[in-house]
Amino acid sequence: MRLTLLALVGFATVASAQSAITGKVLENGSPVASATVHAVRSDKSIAREAITDSDGRFRLAPVSAGLYTVTVRKVGYQSAEQGAVRVLEGQTVSLTVSLTQAPRQLSTIQVVTSPTTINASTPELSLRLDRAFTELLPTGRDASSLIALVPGARKEQLWGGAPGVSNDYQLDGVSMNHPGAGGDFLSLSVDWIEALDIRGLGAGAEHGNFQGGIINAITKTGTNDRRIAFRTNYESERLTATNFNADEQGVEQAGRREVSGEALGPIARDKLFYFAGGQLVRRDMRSPNLTTPAQHDFQLVREEHLDARALGKLTWLPVFGQRVDALLGVSAANADRAGINGVDDPSATLRIRQPTTFYELGWSSSASPRNAIDVRFAGYNSRESRLGYEGPAVPGVQVLHIGRLPTVQNAPFNERRDASNLSASLEWRMSRSALGAEHGLVLGAEVSRGTWRDYRTRNGGLTWRPYSFRVPAFDPFNAATWQTTASDWGGDIHLDSDVGNGAVFVQDYIALGTRLTVTPGLRYGRWSGYVRPGCDSPATSCDRFEAVHATGFDPRIGAVWDVTGRNTFALKAHWGRYHQGMFSLFFDRARGGNVYTNHRRYYAAPPLTDARTTFTTSQRDAAGSGFATYFDEEILDETGRVENYKQPYVDQSVLGLEKSIGRSWK
Asked: Which of 219, 181, 265, 250 shows the shortest CA–CA distance to 105?
């Protein structure tokens, strides 16, 4: 009997020292029962499987020390995978895994863990803002407003002080940047966003074309549960106090009305899902009337905005491990009387129309936990017009007097802008055991092509600049009251440009033992910029020439040390080079582009009786016309020959410490 008891005690001691993987499987905080949990060691020597109980709990034991991949699956739910789970001898590792009834990202299998979980397999310091964060925003918000919730970042400025044009803005992982000015182009409704991924610090070679960070908006996807939501809100000017100080120039929002809704659900259960959303927003902007001595008096005419957006998305799961996404969206940003500022007369404001269409198509295959392929296409087309209310034949009038210079009669310029972009990416992720280490290898390529057309012409061919000094009966609308008159000429823009970005990359995440990960990577990029000189309109067919081009390598290297061996305390170090993506502001003044006309200001114009009078350049330059030939301002058409062009980049060094504190803090 004594020997038997000793044997049992000895067995219990050994059993208590065995390693195990335990945890809970949840869906929106509720336990998921009967889910299959599978763990496999990196060298395939050990595999364990368990079924969750009614409380969503599971236990995988015994397991030996090593690196494991844990996968959770249940019919009707998206599979979840947690890689690089380190288990020490005698250690019990606890995981909390969240399942969702539909995929939320382009990949069919994704890592879903607590937001406070430390990822000790990469030096990247990234953050995901999910629906819990979007619900904290006020009513008048957009997706980019979420960036303000990221530590160390602001809406238009991420780490390192880089402005918005230095970021890479993505839709479901595909770049959707402005081809002319850089930065964000699409303005998505925050209600369409399932999550916002913010990264950039310590990013591997699979990420590029940015100097600040990456802002990836992940759109919603339908589920097996059919849901319909409807929202509306109203802001009244009577409940909104003004923020203007006395004699302050500018605009503020006076009122806002929004109606939005969404619907999602299955078309074929477990196979085909849909999501549809729409939004209609009306906004009124007001400005103090600075042409009168009365304080707190607003202009009678307001700037009125009407923004309409709609999005539809289909998700198809043809076979296990494969997924196809198709997305189509439209947006119309309209504004009437745009440009009020308290000084200019409402007659000099603009009518703005900007219809935009955007789309996306993605396919992913990850049936094998050791191989995943992702292919994505996305793009947009947009046309914008900014037109004066009196048309192109009527000149604007900008008064010259002490202080502010009001503009009346018509907007000085009409402008038309066209933007389009098409991007594609291919990424292959694989995990392999080689040379005594576990490798997470990422291979891929990216390419994007964009166009930017900007055509600006001066209304009437000139802008009158009458002097109002010591003229008691001066009326800017009545040229007969003008005593001395100047005029502005030129200032037109005829920009027709193309941009191209391309890259190939390789990144390896090497697990050396159970605590150390090394991450070497290399990215090779090519950037091109083209202009078409002499194009007078979008319909004109012109030959293009390459204004600039550049190539460059982006090496990346990082290391992560799991200090405790339990994914609760990690030391991360990283160095990498990050080249900026191409947009036309880098080369639009290249010699020979002839994009900008010289802006000349002529004085001593002839006497006028009608403010709508116009002159051609031939009439202006004719003998005895009454125009002087003196000018005091010139905008150069070119800055000189573009030689030895190099795409801008930053070298980034990161040293980070991540420590989890309980279940709610990191």
From this structure: 219
Residue 34 region, left (φ>0) first, then alpha (ψ -120 to 50), else beta?
left
Integer-rounded Cα Rg, in Å, for the chain is 31
* Average pLDDT of adjacent 10-residue blocks, the chain of 666 residues: 38 52 84 87 76 90 83 78 77 82 40 60 83 65 69 71 83 92 84 86 93 90 91 83 77 90 92 95 90 72 94 92 93 95 92 96 84 94 96 94 86 96 95 84 96 95 87 87 88 92 96 89 96 70 82 96 84 96 90 78 84 92 83 62 84 92 77
If 0-12 CB within 10 Å is exposed, 13-18 middle and 19+ buried, where does residue 441 land? middle
Q: Identify any residues that bridge with 26 across adjacent strands, giving them in sequence order.
A: 31, 98
pLDDT at 403: 75
Contact, 111 vs 506, CB < 8 A?
Answer: no
Residue 436 to residues 42, 143, 512, 513: CA-CA distances in angstroms? Answer: 11, 44, 8, 9
The rounded distance, in Å, linking the Cα atoms of 482 and 471 is: 8
Alpha-carbon dihedral 388, 392, 395, 396, rounded to 10 degrees: 10
Q: What tokens were used for 219?
A: 């759109």
**Distance of alpha carbon 496 from the chain centroid:** 24
Contact present, 68 and 82 (Cβ < 8 Å): no
**Collapsed DSSP state (helix, strand, coil) of residue 483:** coil
**Hey, what's the torsion of the CAs at 617, 621, 623, 626, to 10 degrees?**
90
Q: What distance in Å separates the CA atoms of residue 571 and residue 125, rounded to the nearest whole number?
A: 11
> Contact, 215 vs 203, CB < 8 A?
no
Task: Give pTM, 2 decimals.
Answer: 0.81
Q: What pLDDT sits at residue 402?
A: 76
Question: Which 3 state secondary structure label does DSSP give 496?
Answer: strand
Q: Encoding tokens for residue 552? A: 């460059």
Q: What is the pLDDT of residue 151?
A: 73
Q: What is d(CA 115, CA 126) in angstroms, rounded to the nearest whole number?
A: 10
Q: Where are the beta strands (DSSP E) in 339-436?
A: 350-365, 371-388, 396-398, 407-408, 413-434
Strand ranges inside 590-640, DSSP E: 600-602
Whether cis (ω within 30° of 0) applies to the bond prior to 123 is no
Among candidate residues 544, 555, 365, 322, the one with its CA nearest the CA of residue 451: 544
CA distance 84 to 104: 22
Q: Which amino acid makes up residue 589?
A: R
User: Token digits for 340?
Assistant: 């009020």
Beta bridge partners of 410: none
Strand positions, DSSP E, 202-349: 214-219, 227-235, 252-268, 272-286, 303-316, 322-338
